[in-house]
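Recap from last week: sequence in, structure out.
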Amino acid sequence: DGILDGTTPPEREEEALRTISSETRRLSRLVRRMLDLSRLQSAENVTAQEQFDVSEVLVRVLLSLETKINSRHLDVDTQLPDDPVKVWGDPDAITQVCYNLLDNAIKFAREGSTITLTITEKGGKAHVSVRNEGDTIPAEELPMLFDRFHKSDKSRSADREGVGLGLYIVQTILNNHKENIAVTSENGVTEFTFTLMLA
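Predicted structure tokens:
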């Protein structure tokens, strides 16, 4: 409005436009996420159950985030089985889960540290873990991480791009699969682990 009515000085117009552009993108992301949530929570949403290799999904997501990983000078340690890890579920939805967890891990990792990806099989389940090194999340905040719009105090300054829905979407997808996700954060190491039924 200031630009339109001439009250913003010409030398500040570019800065104001950058703010408008950034906020527009943020609102666009928020609307997209809200639509994703609406779809996930709708009564007619039925999770497609098919067999797929969760190991392959994780590696594909990792490759898609290579630029972000390199920009923060992170190492990646993949501890994955040699053979495919066949699970039941909706591969597109689980791709979203892996993307959200990895994207968070990259964003909040200490620059130059290591992200560790692990898949183990036990009790008829695949256990998929994403671990990073960075700030420890206070114990009292851990239960709230999956709440809608929750952003930890540490992430508020570091994550100006986020809208606080990534982990809520992760949990919603896994709930639709009747699966679990857990998080631990101790001594600067934070790890998210979710389960899927082995096929």
